[in-house]
Amino acid sequence: MNAEKRPNELLGSWFVRSGWSKGELARQVNRRARQLGANHISTDTSRVRRWLDGENPREPIPRILSELFSERFGCVVAVEDLGLRAAHQSPSVSGVDLPWTGPQTVALIGEFSRSDLMLARRGFLGSSLALAAGPSLIEPMQRWLVPTPGSSSAKPEPEQPATRRGNRLSKPELDLLESTTVMFRQWDAQCGGGLRRKAVVGQLHEVTDLLQESQPESTMRRLFKVAAELAELAGWMSYDVGLQPTAQKYFVLALHAAKEAGDKPLGSYVLSSMSRQMIHLGRPEDALELIHLAQYGSRDCASPRTQSMLYAMEARAYANMGQPGKCKRAVRMAEETFTDADDWDDPDPDWIRFFSEAELHGENSHSFRDLAYVAGRSPTYASMAEPLMRRAVELFGKDAEHQRSYALNLIGMATVHLLQKEPEQATTLAVDALGIARKVRSERVNTRIRKTVDTAVRDFGDVAEVIQLTEQLAVHLPETAEAAV
Fold this sequence. Notes:
Blueprint: H1 9-18, H2 22-35, H3 45-52, H4 61-73, H5 102-121, H6 135-142, H7 171-191, H8 197-211, H9 217-240, H10 244-261, H11 264-280, H12 284-298, H13 304-320, H14 324-338, H15 357-374, H16 379-396, H17 403-419, H18 423-437, H19 443-460, H20 464-476
């Protein structure tokens, strides 16, 4: 005789505090499942009731619920916090506390990318990963700075002429790998993370095969650098389409590969991507720890452009922590450091070239915008954000290569106008962003548009332009839209 199920009090507590109805939670689960490629999932109100009554759903439902509640409350809500059983995970594909050695890094990247590709081919992208946060995330990342013997692959071979011998890569072949990574990065900026994510993961898997072959030390370092850039990009694209645990795992693997490449500036860039994700997940304290780690680790070798980007992300973290003095100082440092970018003797690597004047203004304006919200819709901080955001929108409007950034800054400008009680101007910008969202595959853009429209409806729901915007949103960006991954 089966033991009687008991109500899941933990899940019930989170559910009640969320303010969602059972039908609303079911709709959100279905939408997230479609984004993950789990099209077989069709949840309804009665199913949600059974979960609350003690039924334990199968994967990927527990992970989806974890992500939804994490985003709702601005903190990491683990599967166990919801009173649900976490799926069994092998140590090699779960967690972020991984060995800092070359061969194991290669094996882990190869295994994770292969798993990602296999799940994608089967139309299901849930690997039961859990997000790490707090000390469980920060402490393993701090080992990035700990010296390890033989930072590249073990037993590198002596240098050889740049010709192919057996499985050795020639210089032209390495150059082609690096240029392909640049091309992938351009596609991401233009089209969003949903269009070429699987192609990037596939290329990353191919590079891990090359890393397992016998190569000279200089070739190994270049290959590890390529692997780090591809893993970071795979993480960024996963973040862009809403696969948060997958994104975090790729970022961690990218940091390991950057360490093996001996490239501290690249490692600091990976940490900045992790920091941005933590801000998105409502963990600004973790974001700040990651940025400070990046700044400390690359203080003597990062270019002014990279340092400026790190200061801008530091400002975002302080803004979300509600610390205006430190936020303003970081904004000022970002601006001052950026002025030295053009005088830097060495050319910047491709991964930091995105950080243009437009990006600088966009980040700093978002810091002041975030401060405005944290300070209770402060008109002072909104007015500080407005000219910077206007300049970012103007510059991105002339940049055909960064359409996603253009859309995100249009949305940012719309939120500033809402703070300034100017709904008509906000809706005009939101309509422009909606037009771009239909062309790029970015769930991040879609989500921000929806949230901005929700804010406009809540505060100015009787304004004719807002009513028209909600109608356009329902037609052009319906809740049932799927994110291609």
